[in-house]
């Protein structure tokens, strides 16, 4: 049986599986179903590989529920701290004994550090920062076909590798995690023996949250301001929207054009070159609906668009369409919440 392996990421503070890992496991499961439909008799097993000193039992069950047929724990106390070379060598050791046809890594700090170290040792290609992935049938052969933005995010490129295993890093937030599969599966503990020490050593760590980033992965409600809120090149309405987000316990976000015109910081950007998110509610204020932005929020459960242009592209993706001046709506919301403007 062929195999799709996911490099699972764990929060080292509590040893719980990160949300992006569940997203990749569920995507791997859908890829396995897709391959079977495209070519009869082709079966893929979905394997989630974690590197840690231990895994919480309930987390293992969640991995099965997300779509994993097998969970592998590469186990050693040295993995209580993240060292990119150590993680990569341990993963390689396991992979060389039990290879896979497809390797999926999260496009996170850890995933981006481990993936190239693994693929260069395997002498294969790596498609980085993907926003889509599928199998295609070409000359009666199955190929893994990941897609990523290119040419300044103006185009989407689907890239076929000439070498195996097929490898890709997948952006967090672009695929949905679906906990609808099996309640149990295979489990294996693997004790590595030949990994090497990293030349970089951790001197100290600071648990204070990074002030230069915004975590959209767990956002429940996102209020996004587009360039339609700009008035006389002022950031006035973005500040107003941020106030509303704060009082409603929502996440404030903007589109790329807003960032390009220095009206908001890049950490708030949603889209291909920003963050991806899939909240329960996504409200777009004055957002035009450029495809680069849509790629970052299309998996939101409910999308509301507010735009004065009834033909705005954003409405093609909305569950609810409000044709109105988004600036006026913001002012009305400020009055409703009794927020000083």
Provide the CATH superfamily of the largest domain.
HUPs
Low-confidence stretches: none
Shape: globular
The CATH topology of the largest domain comes to Rossmann fold
Tally of discrete structural domains? 2
SSE pattern: EEEHEHEHEHEEEEEEEHEHEHEEH
Total DSSP helices: 8
Structural class: alpha/beta
CATH class of the largest domain: Alpha Beta
CATH architecture of the largest domain: 3-Layer(aba) Sandwich
Architecture overview:
- It is built from 8 helices and 17 strands.
- The chain is α/β, with parallel strands linked by helices and 341 residues long.
- The protein has 2 domains: 2-190, HUPs (Rossmann fold); 221-336, TPP-binding domain (Rossmann fold, 3-Layer(aba) Sandwich), CATH 3.40.50.
- The strands form 4 sheets. The chain has a 7-stranded parallel β-sheet with strand order 7-11-6-1-4-5-12, with helices on both faces. Strands 14-13-15-16-17 form a 5-stranded parallel β-sheet. Strands 8-9-10 form a 3-stranded antiparallel β-sheet.
- Helix 3 crosses helix 4 and helix 5 (236-247) crosses helix 8 (326-336).
- The N and C termini lie far apart (63 Å).
């Amino acid at each position: 049986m062929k195999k799709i392996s996911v490099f699972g990421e764990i929060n080292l503070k509590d040893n719980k599986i990160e949300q992006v890992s569940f997203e990749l496991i569920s995507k791997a499961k859908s890829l396995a179903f897709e391959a079977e439909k495209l070519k009869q008799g082709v079966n893929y097993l979905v394997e989630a590989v974690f590197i840690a000193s231990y895994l919480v039992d309930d987390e293992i069950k969640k991995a099965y529920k997300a779509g994993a047929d097998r969970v592998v724990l590469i186990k050693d106390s040295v993995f209580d701290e993240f060292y990119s070379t150590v993680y990569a060598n341990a993963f390689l050791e396991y992979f060389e004994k039990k290879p896979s046809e497809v390797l999926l890594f999260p496009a996170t700090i850890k995933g981006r550090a481990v993936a190239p170290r693994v693929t260069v040792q395997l002498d294969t290609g790596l498609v980085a920062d993907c926003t889509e992935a599928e199998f295609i049938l070409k000359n009666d052969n199955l190929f893994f076909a990941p897609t990523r933005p290119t040419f300044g995010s103006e185009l989407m490129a689907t890239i076929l590798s000439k070498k195996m295993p097929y490898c890709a890093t997948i952006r967090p937030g672009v695929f949905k995690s679906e906990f609808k599969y099996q309640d149990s599966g295979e489990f294996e503990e693997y004790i590595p023996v030949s990994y090497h020490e990293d030349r970089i050593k951790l001197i100290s760590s600071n648990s204070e949250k990074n002030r230069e980033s915004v975590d959209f992965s767990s956002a429940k409600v996102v209020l996004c301001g587009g360039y339609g809120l700009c008035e006389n090149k002022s950031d006035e309405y973005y500040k107003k929207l941020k106030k509303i987000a704060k009082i409603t316990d929502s996440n404030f976000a903007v589109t790329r054009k807003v960032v390009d015109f220095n009206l908001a910081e890049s950490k708030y950007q949603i889209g291909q070159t920003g963050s991806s998110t899939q909240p329960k509610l996504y409200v777009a204020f004055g957002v035009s609906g450029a495809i680069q932005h849509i790629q970052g929020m299309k998996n939101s459960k409910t999308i509301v668009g507010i735009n004065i242009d009834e033909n705005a592209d954003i409405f093609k993706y909305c569950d609810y369409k409000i044709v109105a001046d988004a600036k006026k709506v913001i002012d009305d919301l400020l009055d409703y919440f009794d927020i000083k403007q």
